[in-house]
Amino acid sequence: MIALPGDMRVRLVTALILVVAISQLQTIPVAATVLAAAVTVAVMSGIGGKAWLRMLHVETFMILLFLTLPFTVPGRTVLTIGPFDASAEGFARAAVIACKVSASVLTIVVFLGSVEAMRLGAALHSLRVPEPIVRLFVLTVRYLSVIGGEARRLQEAMRARAFRPGSNRHTWRSYGNLVGMLLVRALDRAQRVEEAMLCRGFSGRFPWQEPPRLSRSEMGFMALAATAAVLITAADRL
User: Fold this and answer.
1) Confidence class of residue 132 from pLDDT cuts 50, 70 and 90?
2) H/E element, 124
3) Is 162 exposed, middle or buried (0-12, 13-18, 19+ CB in 10 A)?
4) Which of 11, 40, 92, 103 would you call most buried, defined as having the most Cβ atoms within 10 angstroms of its Cβ?
């Protein structure tokens, strides 16, 4: 098992450094190697089954990328379907993008996937991110699940009234009403939450604690991540 740093600032900065470096890759061998390394680290860090399920959702979009991009990039034709020609360069570009996206998502999941919103907000605040952005992020993450639960309850109420989706005007009108009702309930919930926060003395700023000083091992971990980012970037450019 790999022991990750406990300080969220270190995790945030490390994930940012690695994702930026991964996003700049341009060759298949290096991108595939980075993806293999990310999968290895994810397995050794012991991420849960829900994280791998999220990866399946990501890979579904990557399949769509392979089905469309090769037909839009000019180059040497390797496959012809009717009037459409798929190029080798298109498949290569799709493979690079798929490796980069998968490796980036795995990196974020490993470092930040199991972190509570308030801990992540405290780390952002300590990194001098503006308070309005931190507050918006924390409240959005906190209440996404609440709004999702409200949407599920509304859908269950529609099914209880014998609603069956189809490709007709009634279905689209019903979905429009669902979205409208969801927005109304979200606004009502936001007003109640704001009133509750004001009753508890909220003045526009969360009471963040002063973060501790980074240890030498944590500084070394960030330096190691920066070194890895430089090395993979250099290897990609050779």
Assistant:
1) confident
2) helix 117-126
3) exposed
4) 103
Q: Could you tell me which of 129, 109, 128 has the C-alpha nearest to residue 11?
A: 109
C-alpha to C-alpha distances, 168 to 100, 155, 173, 189, 209, nearest whole angstrom: 40, 18, 9, 32, 54
Query: What distance in Å separates the CA atoms of residue 232 and residue 181, rounded to the nearest whole number?
Result: 49
Judge contact between 11 and 111, C-beta under 8 A: yes
* Nearest residue to 178 (alpha-carbon basis) of 202, 200, 204, 159: 159
pTM reported for the whole predicted model? 0.77
Q: Which helix (H) or strand (E) holds 87?
A: strand 84-87
Upper half-sphere CA count for residue 155 (Cβ side, 13 Å): 9
3-state helix, strand, coil in the chain (%, to 5): 75, 5, 25
3-state secondary structure 28-85: HHHHHHHHHHHHHHHHHHCCCHHHHHHHHHHHHHHHHHHHHHHHCCCCCEEEEECCEE
Helix (DSSP H) and strand (DSSP E) numbers for the chain: 8, 2
Would you give the DSSP letter of residue 114?
T
Mean per-residue pLDDT for 167-179? 88
Q: How far is CA 177 from CA 162, 180, 188, in A?
A: 16, 5, 16
